[in-house]
Amino acid sequence: MSSGMKLMDRAFYFTESDNSPKHVAGLLKFTIPEGKDYHYVLELYETLRTFNKAEAPFNQTVVSYFKIPFWFQEQKTFDCDYHIKIHEVENVDDIIELNTLVVKLHEERLDKSKPLWQCHLIYCKKSRSFSIYSKIHHVYADGVTLLSWIIKSFSVAPGSEIKPFWAIEKKRKPVPFSYKTPLKDLWGLVIYFKDILILFFNNLVRTISPSRTDNAVPFSGKRTVLTGKVTKGRVFSSVKLPLNEIVTACKLTRTTVNDFLLTVIDIATHRFLKDYGHDDFEQPLVALMPVSLRRPGDTSGGNKIAIALIKLAYGRSDPYKRLRQVVNSNFLVKQEAKVYSPAVYTHISIMYQTFALLVDMVNLSEKLRPLGNLLVSNVPGPKEPLFFGDSQLNSICPVSTLAPGGGLNVTLVSYNGEVEVGLLCCNNKVNSLEPLTVYIKEAFELLVKSIDDPDITIDDLGEKPRKENLTIVEDIL
User: Is the predicted pLDDT of residue 476 greater than 50, yes or no?
Assistant: First the structure.
């Protein structure tokens, strides 16, 4: 049985290379049940191997010709040794050792002759903790959907029957036929081309005559040690932030969690880049942010996302004022998104990514401006503690992929009162992201304090403000 693919699905598959795999992953950390030791993990490994019949899409390979993907095709065989693996380490509680193994596993591409996923159990003999690293190709679905599929393996109480994500059948809703559909599609095509032309024209005007009151334009990011040609090696790190404190701060400032965390990441990234000699910023950093185009309750496969470009803060030493700048930038993006159809945003995103990929392929990424400086994804997770069989899930740490032109990938996943921030970049110019995790914690604490204390300021971030028209919000603040 075969099934079709969306354009964004094809883009993730087609643009994959040895230097830039397009799978995403989650590092799930567990506690071994009371009265058990590491043998519990060995038994769990054997239990998972008994689930040797996968459900769609985890039983599907991609049919392609001349490297161009066309559709999914069901594969009858199941290779347990490939899909389910186990690793013993010296100390699973050693973050550096664990992250080193995760990087090694994450650098390897998935075998395209098999369904595109793997599950790795990681344990040691002296700890009451273990981890499961699961990686799945982006061709199957976007991050929000993939997490929702994985979470279906869990329960809210211990003792439930174990059933891994690949063995869970997904219900499909039939699409009713309507005679009005062809006419509706024809009118939608007219609107689509109209929106494409308007959006291209607006971006052209912004490129020729940029203004800080406008939305960000593609390929306006500054070249830094984090951007450039995507190479094979990776650097990974993570940090946790308290979700309850974030929500409280957002209520006080009338902002969203996205606004607040973008500001934290912006301040921390500036400090990190300054450590590498970047002290001449004449414009804000540009963030790429995937925006879900799914309707509530939609758990179907495929990628239903678009990429929004958001200007971050600039030229302000007051953390709170930088937050207001980010709020304003997000507002402008949301207003623009209301004007155009979802299809336009999706296809424009693919066009920009394709151009960035071509730039990368001809080795011009080090000479031309990147599409953006960092990619920030926010994936809402479960609010209550979950269990996999008798093991309590302690955290969900995301490990994502890199966009053409490099940059920093920041993926946020909330779970049980915490936000796990996963950080990923190439290792050709940066050998550790640990300093960035420290800066993120400090930026968070500083931004929270600045809500009640207007005298709090941040250190020089290497910004060189130019005389430009400010937004109304910036003029007032």
Answer: no
Cis peptide before 465 (omega within 30 of 0): no
Of 67-71, 254-258, 371-375, the least confident: 67-71
Q: Are 413 and 420 in contact (CB under 8 A)?
A: yes
Mark whether 139 and 241 lie in a shared domain.
no
Q: What's the token pair of residue 41?
A: 């993990």
Instruction: Enumerate the β-bridge partners of residue 420.
Output: 240, 413
For residues 50 and 112, state if they share a domain: yes
Place of tokens 């950390």: 29
Angle at 114 between CA 111 and CA 119, to 5 degrees: 75
Asked whether the predicted pLDDT for residue 188 surpasses 80, the reply is no
Chain mean position to CA 37: 34
pLDDT, the chain, mean: 88
Amino acid at 214: D
Cβ-based burial of 93 (10 A; exposed 0-12, middle 13-18, buried ≥19): middle
In a domain, 391, yes or no: no
Domain end marker among 167, 192, 207: 167
- The domain that holds 269 is classified in CATH as 3.30.559.30
Token pair for 471: 């937004």
Q: What is the mean pLDDT of residues 440-456?
A: 96
User: Is residue 172 assigned to a domain?
Assistant: no
- Residues 408, 414, 417: CA angle, nearest 5 degrees: 135
pLDDT, tens only, 76-85: 899 999 999 9
Count up the domains in the chain and report the number.
Answer: 2
User: How many Å apart are CA 266 and CA 313, to the nearest integer?
Assistant: 7
The pLDDT assigned to 376 comes to 97
pLDDT in tens, 377-405: 999 999 999 999 999 999 999 999 999 88
Domain that holds residue 291: 181-384+399-476
472 and 335 together in one domain = yes
Q: What is the mean pLDDT of residues 172-200?
A: 59
Q: Give a yes or no: residue 173 inside a domain.
A: no
Say whether both 159 and 196 belong to one domain: no
* Joined tokens for residue 194: 């109209």
- Phi, psi (deg, nearest 5) at residue 131: -130, 155
